Amino acid sequence: MSILEDMIDERINSSKWDSDIARRVMNKKALFIRRTRFLFSIAASIVAITGMGIYHHMNQRAVLKSTFDYIISETVAGSNENTVISKDMDTKIIQYCMNTK
Predict the structure, then answer these.
(1) pLDDT tens digits, 11-33
(2) What residue ranges do the domains of the chain occupy?
(3) Measured between alpha carbons, how far apart are the two ends of the chain, in Å?
(4) Coil, helix or strand for 14?
(5) Between helices 15-75 and 87-99, what is the axis angle to 10°?
(6) Helix, strand, coil distribution of the chain in percent, nearest 5
(7) 62-93 as b/e, with b when 16 or more CB fall inside 10 Å?
(8) Is residue 83 within 8 Å of residue 69, measured between CB atoms?
(9) For the chain, is the Cβ count within 10 Å smaller at the N or the C terminus?
(10) Is the distance from CB of 65 to CB of 81 less than 8 angstroms?
């Protein structure tokens, strides 16, 4: 037998060789778990930020409308929250507020 074959046989029969393989396998599993957790946390953060942005965008017009209804009801005598001065005026007010942010 050659020296190389003797070294291979020695390593195969060695218990240290088995523990090295087991350690490497466990390290790979731990690395996989860490990477998976990291990627999952990034994905969850992206979903949360996107959800907040969509909610804010969808809710913005309703908030502006209710704010202006409140202001109009406080300043115009005899009006309530459903009073519409004019559709054109409401549209202009909303567009102005969205452009000045």
Answers:
(1) 777 777 777 778 888 899 999 99
(2) 3-99
(3) 83
(4) coil
(5) 140
(6) 85, 0, 15
(7) eeeeeebbeebeeeeeeeeeeeeeeeeebeeb
(8) yes
(9) C
(10) no
Q: Which amino acid is at 8?
A: I
For 79, phi and psi rounded to 5 degrees?
A: -105, 160
Would you state the pLDDT for residue 66? 78
What tokens does 1 get?
């037998």
pLDDT of residue 35: 96
d(CA 48, CA 77): 44
Cβ neighbors of 49 (< 8 A, separation 6 or more) are: none
pTM of the model: 0.46
Q: How many residues does the chain have?
A: 101
Pair 72, 79: CB distance under 8 Å:
yes
